[in-house]
Amino acid sequence: MKNLKKKLGLSAAVVLSTLTFATAYAASSVPTTSTTPENPNITYIKTDEPTSYRIDQLKKIAMYYYWHGGDLEKAEKEIFKGITLKGKYDVVEHAFKEATLIDPYNLDLKFSLASTQIIQKKIPEALQTYKQILNLDPNNFNANLLYGVYSKINGDIRAYKSAISKLKRIDSKKANEYIRKLKTTESIINSKLNTEVPQHLPQKDHAIVILGYALADDGSMRQPLMERLKVGLAIAKQYPHSKIIVTGGVPKQGITEAEAMSNWLISQGIEKDRIILENKSTDTVENALFTTAILEKEGIKDVTLVTSASHMRRALTVFKEASDFYDKMNGKNSNRNFTNVVYLDYPSIEEAQKVSKDEEFVIYRDLFRVSGIWQYPGLQR
């Protein structure tokens, strides 16, 4: 086994025969690991370990691969032996699938499985998983909501209408709130993307929010981020009194996206005191939540979002929802206004205005996440 660990390394050994479902329980022990690369100690779990312990290890495996990935080629060749792995989310899915076999009563595990299937665009499988939840708990609000909306995107309007009717019976107030959110999102999906700097933006209480993009392993900025910065810089020059918020907290070589963006803007002549760093977020949902806290603190009423065209509708959706949430939490109505300017990552603006089914799924998935429905209950928003 020591030779096997050296051969596979941490990322492959983390899953081992835990996920070889047909033979998992025939084995005498299951190698696994903690979820952080800083603590790579591998332990061995016998199959007669307590149920909660085995489930906990499977959740750790899922979250490890969700964040860090692993050597899929070796895992497929030397561990899974016949199971085709197309990406790290295959491992996440298999881990949650195994966990649901160990505890078929745990609905949170089923929600996590369905979320991973949505990420992988396995829509029929995800809908079936939500259906299992509803068979066990017909009045589960979140399951009815997710099943209904994803069914609609998938072309099943009847299932959507039935789900909405059920939601109104379960909790009419909450159902009407989500109906409003869905209508707002539909309006955003159909809104115009702007490639030019808007005229007549407010000269007061206005901020330009430039959304980050993952840095290269050496800490350098990739082209999409550079292009977003160029768009943001053009707006900043035209509106010299506007604050600039740069977002992104995933570090590479000791620097976050926000820090790299700030350094670049300063090198282009932007005053340092105009720039505010949001350097804790790991994805678009956290961009919105953490940036909205800054907007509240700074008293910003008008926001111009800057990101890629393929990302803008999702960004507008989650920022609007985050802003509405902060209003509700603070018992006020900020009437915060959002405008947009995009880096055009399509051949033409006409192509950019078209919304694919895949984009719709991601938009609504992140709407639900920012509204408070965790993607992986208790593990990952």
Shape: globular
Radius of gyration: 23 Å
Main sheet strand line-up? 5-4-3-6-7
Residue-averaged pLDDT: 87
Runs in which pLDDT lies below 50 for 5 or more consecutive residues are: 1-45
Helix content: 40-55%
Strand-pairing-aware structural class:
alpha/beta
Tell me the series of helices and strands, N- to C-terminal.
HEEHHHHHHHHEHEHEHEHEHH
Query: What is the count of β-strands?
Result: 7
Q: What's the CATH H-level superfamily name of the domain at 206-352?
A: HUPs
Q: How is the biggest beta sheet arranged?
A: 5 strands, parallel
What can you tell me about this protein's structure?
The chain is of the alpha/beta class and 381 residues long. Among the domains are: 2-104, no CATH class; 206-352, HUPs (Rossmann fold), CATH 3.40.50. The protein has 15 helices and seven strands. It has helices at residues 2-13, 51-68, 72-80, 88-102, 107-119, 123-136, 141-153, 157-170, 172-189, 223-238, 257-267, 284-298, 309-330, 349-352, 357-370; strands at 29-33, 42-46, 206-210, 243-247, 275-278, 302-308, 337-343. The strands form two sheets. It has a five-stranded parallel sheet. Strands 1-2 form a two-stranded antiparallel sheet. Helix 7 (141-153) packs antiparallel against helix 15 (357-370). The radius of gyration is 23 Å and the shape is globular. The model is unreliable at 1-45 (pLDDT under 50).
